[in-house]
């Protein structure tokens, strides 16, 4: 109505951890001033727990804020279909972490960050898929970033999982050599490995992204409070 806006339901399927289809029931209430005002969103699924549905709703609202003042429902639906498996994995990890904390486990390690520079990827499609799988298996969030010839990997997560990722990166045959034979990654630089500070935000998912300019790449770092990390390590890579 003119005073209450529009409400509609959408049923979609998306892939979860084991690549099986999950039926999601999404309800969007678009207020009269939409898209200048965020929609109300409700998420239900018989295949997800209540906590996972609530987590998914929160993530959708976070994404909606990025599209404020522009039509966003279609973008939100695409985002859910692309990221459901990562959200479920992260939600499961958070639940597990809370259970561990309730048992009095030590948390002195906290959340860590790993920043890597790769020289090249000859078998790019396979390499990217492998990195995505490792990040998913280890509950790591962050970015695999391409900007011109620059290839960067920025990861956040439990310190032990960060270390496990680095071992995989250095010891697995993840690429091919000039003869197209499988080979280990030999041209990798660990730019930074450190504990996340209070001023740093957390990536919610792991994503592979291409950037057309250095300014575009810089904004990705600034969005999570890592402007200093960018200025210290990225510009020198252009020299």
TrEMBL record:
Chief localisation class: cytoplasm
Domain RWD stretches: 1-87
A biological process term (GO) from this entry: positive regulation of protein sumoylation
Xref: InterPro entries: RWD_dom, RWDD3, UBQ-conjugating_enzyme/RWD
Record bears the keyword Nucleotidyltransferase: no
Location(s), subcellular: Cytoplasm; Nucleus
GO cellular component: cytoplasm; nucleus
Keyword annotations from UniProtKB, A to Z: Cytoplasm, Nucleus
SMART domains (alphabetical): RWD (SM00591)
Name listed for the protein in its UniProt record: RWD domain-containing protein 3
Organism of origin: Nothocercus nigrocapillus
